[in-house]
Design brief:
Layout: E1 2-8, E2 11-17, H1 27-42, E3 48-53, E4 58-60, H2 68-72, H3 81-86, H4 94-99, E5 110-114, E6 117-119, H5 121-127, E7 131-135, E8 139-141, H6 155-163, H7 165-174, E9 177-179, H8 180-185, E10 191-193, H9 198-211, H10 215-227, H11 233-248, H12 252-261, H13 283-287, E11 292-294, E12 301-303, H14 320-327, H15 333-337
Parallel strand pairs: 2-3, 3-5, 4-6, 5-7, 6-8, 7-10
Antiparallel strand pairs: 1-2, 8-9, 11-12
């Protein structure tokens, strides 16, 4: 189970098949997707591609909340080369973006065949496709704002270009669910077909039709279509990344995910940006904390820990780094206390 990658003549089929997680995008599945797109790009025999789901009721349930989401939001550090490749901020999450067709650098037409639930990152991946067909039971949702997240896989750039700015903002800001018929009327879908085998039949018929056409002309058309927007693709995607990274690495995603686990409404506080020194390698311990504290001096988010020092009801808090600086008399504790924030305790980083 994972990714089903097959070839039929000049058509490549990329199928999501992880029943236990409803095709959630784990690090393993993202790497498989990245490698599949790379294979499609390099193989001259392949002239068109169909992206689809092997599951009957879901296309993709979005990011894996226990695996990739803690990496994206900075709740744990990458622990192997694959995770570093997928979620390195220095590279703009290049591996993750490549897996989701974010850069749209596959010059061969990609057809997304969408059935059932198509959520957030899975929704973003279909935006990177060139053509989209859906079964009548398809439901689309960008859930990011409900979890305190900002889309970082290309949605802020591609969705307005596909459905128009006003409709794109509605989809991105509300986090509402949209039917296949609505998305067809808004121009996101090329066609809607009845539930069942019709979806893959329609997608493969279209893929074979495209594969029978001149590959160079199609590649030229696709290239021009992707680059004709006013702002260069690189500049637009860089802007999206720079604005979204502080959001996905902030406190709102932690609260949003925690609230979902506890079946309650989130209480977003928009706390400061997480940095590497505050990240834990145990995401469960992070998400299960009753609350998150902020270093009084530097404003960094600190995880509550049993390794306490000082007095629990204290109104000031310092991260380990600042404590060490205080010990070396490099900070003025008096000045730090003057900036104390409410409802905080003195804790030590894990």
């Amino acid at each position: 189970m994972g990714l089903e990658f097959t070839k039929e003549g000049h058509v490549a089929k990329v199928g999501l098949n992880v029943p236990e997680t409803k095709n959630a995008l784990s690090t393993y599945l993202l790497l498989e997707l990245y490698e599949a797109w790379d294979e499609c790009r390099k193989d001259d025999v392949i002239r068109s591609v169909v992206l689809y789901s092997e599951l009957p009721d879901v296309f993709c349930s979005g990011m894996d909340m226990d695996d990739t989401l803690p990496l994206m939001t900075g709740q744990r550090l990458p622990c192997n080369d694959t995770e570093k490749f997928l979620f390195s901020p220095e590279d703009g999450f290049a591996g993750y973006g490549g897996a989701l067709l974010k850069n749209r650098n596959l010059s061969k037409p990609v057809i997304a065949a969408i059935n059932g639930w198509c959520l957030t990152s899975g929704f973003e991946m279909t935006m990177g496709a060139d053509l989209r067909i859906a079964s009548s039971d398809a439901k689309f949702q960008m859930r990011g704002t409900k979890l305190g997240l900002q889309a970082i896989g290309g949605a802020n750039i591609y969705l307005p270009a596909i459905v128009g700015n006003t409709r794109a903002l509605e989809i991105l800001l509300t986090g509402d669910v949209y039917s296949a018929s609505k998305m067809l009327s808004w121009g996101f879908l090329n066609k809607v077909v009845p539930v069942g085998e019709y979806l893959m039949e329609e997608a493969m018929t279209l893929a074979e039709k495209l594969a029978a056409s001149g590959p160079r002309s199609q590649q030229g058309i696709i290239k021009v279509n992707k680059l004709e927007q006013g702002l260069s693709l690189e500049a637009a995607l860089q802007l999206e990344f720079e604005t979204a990274l502080p959001v996905v690495r902030g406190s709102d995603p932690v609260e949003g995910i925690k609230a979902q686990r506890e079946n309650r409404k989130p209480n977003f506080q928009d706390q400061p940006f997480l940095t590497e020194c505050e990240v834990t390698n145990n995401p469960e311990s992070y998400f299960n904390n009753d609350y998150i504290e902020i270093c009084t001096h530097c404003g960094k988010i600190i995880l509550e820990s049993q390794d306490r020092f000082g007095f629990p009801p204290a109104k000031i808090i310092f991260c380990t780094e600042c404590v060490e600086q205080i010990k070396r008399n490099e900070l003025s504790q008096k000045n730090s206390i003057s900036r104390a924030m409410p409802r905080v305790t003195i804790v030590r980083n894990k």
